[in-house]
Amino acid sequence: MDRVPILVLGDVLLVSIQIDLEDQLALHLQEDLAEKISASSAHGVIIDITALDIVDSFVGRTLATIAAVSKVLDAETVLVGMRPAVAITLVELGLTLRGIRTALNVEHGLRLLRDLRAADEFEPDDEDEVTADDSAASR
Amino acid sequence: MIDVEALGPARRQEIAADDDVVRVRQLVRAAAVESKLSLVDQTKLVTAASELARNTLVYGGGGYAEVQPVSNGRRRGIRVVFADEGPGIADLDQAFTDGYTTGGGLGLGLSGARRLMDEFELHTEVGAGTVITAVKWER
Q: Given this model, what pLDDT does residue A95 score?
């Protein structure tokens, strides 16, 4: 069984999906990423889907789950490189990808993660951190 | 039945395992490219086919997909047929409701696929199976 490789770039994990994402492969990626975040204490995950020519509801759900799991492990996930046709299709399909951040490409994704980290460091480390973090992200 | 004239041979793919869903996607994509569907329409068609193929596997217990270039006299298109001999769908209204699922998915497969296609016809019989016929026309 193939695996999607996960690259470590400082405190960011970079995943570039280069093959047709079979359901099992998507689930393996979800598990591998959680392990890798935990082992590397990464603070950000960038998933590059430039090569994906479709994102159906299964892949969409897996990506949203990856983002949610990362969040619990204190890492932000940014989905980058979505093709315009894929974006149009996703909207028509009814998939909203809630809780997942997007950026145009890897470079923008890295910048977004850096900005989020910087904003986070200025926030007081108290019980309200989650709400503060959310409002910072939506700016 | 949707009134169409076949323009070429129907190609069939058995759906019995996860990787067959990927094979269905590849078969449908190849047919869409041959028929010169626009990139957005190709993406919508392949995404819908992916949802329906997974439904055939997960809910229908497996079956087959058939892909055929067709025409209605004015336009060319691709017809896809998904057939299984599974338990059938007891409540169609419910099955077409966004977010309703009995299989742990997002409940977007059937309703989303119908939105992405131009023609959509579903025949189901409880205890006997389900046949879905759908067409995507060129713009």
A: 87
